[in-house]
Structures
1.
Amino acid sequence: MSINIIKDSIDLGIITTNPEPMLRFYRDTLGLKPGGDMEIPGGGQMIRLLCGTTVVKLVVNGQPPEQPAVPGGIAGAAGYRYWTITVDNLQESVQECRDAGYNIAMEPQEIREGVTFTVIEDPDGNWVELLEMAE
């Protein structure tokens, strides 16, 4: 038996204690579209943002998490460390993030012919890779 996947993308949950700065980053700077908010059991809130058909869920629990996120990006710990958004305006996106005061964790670099990436830190220190592929 195998899992019958019926959606062409994933939903990603990011636990935060700082929803407003996270919204400014994901919605206002990166341009993810509002997808609706909802209360969750235990007094929390889920703020849904759309990145194509992917849903990025900013979750504020009713109780603060027991542990903060482990800093250090890819080398900081095992487990989920970054996720990728494919764009067609990498240099402009990096400049907009830089102008907004976000940390560019890895400057843009070509990893193979026609493929360039960068890594930006969100306000909680999570890494978001922006990837551009030449046409």
Note: The beta strands are 11-15, 33-40, 44-51, 54-60, 82-86, 104-112, 115-121, 127-133.
2.
Amino acid sequence: MRRKMILCLTAGFLIFSASVLTAPRQADAAKIGNINQAKAKARQQVKNATVTEVDSDFENGKLVYEVQLYKGKKEYDLVYQASNGKLIEYGWEDHTVKVAKHLITKSTCKKCAKQKVKNASIDRITQHYEDGFGVYKVVMRKGAKKYTLEYRKTGGALIEYKWEIAASETSSKNKYIGHAKAKSIAQKKVPGASVVKVEFDADDDGIAVYEVEMIKGNYEYDLTIHAKSGKILEYDRDFND
């Protein structure tokens, strides 16, 4: 009887030890330790794509691997966190879209973006020119992710799609002006306008900003304000159709 108890205890100890040792090994297996591992992960994410470039960099003090791939007409950019192998940025661009004659409206662009990213909220829509063509840039949020979509105004084709894990304003040690100050700056720019939304974005093309959306009369206003200096970086007025 005693011998059976010893065997049971020994077996139990071995099972417990194995489970304890397996967890760290599984965690280690998820890490990315070199460029080849980053390539392999990216190829799994975008099947049958060709890897053209791999770089390592530091984002917010953490090592990341940036992988660029091509598949068909699209160029893909993926960013992985080295410590856990997590995909923190994913995007593609397609600049081979055929030229169309008809123009899409801002409201049509909104509908397209909401269909593309279900249940996401739209932060702002701005307009600019890229390669000689008018483009709508749509910034959206869903959970911890920030989405950026770009639509060609002529034809309405989606030419760029990207999501990234959004950083929190409170997670940074940097001193920012805060939502209230950003709101005040925007209202001074457009006196009498009603503020609809103020959002913090820790990485808008590498800069921490506040994005302010306002309405006055028949117009919508979108402002991008530097999170530290309070300088207005972008200002857009659009007829509310």
Note: Residues 179-239 form a domain with the Nuclear Transport Factor 2; Chain: A, fold (CATH 3.10.450.40).
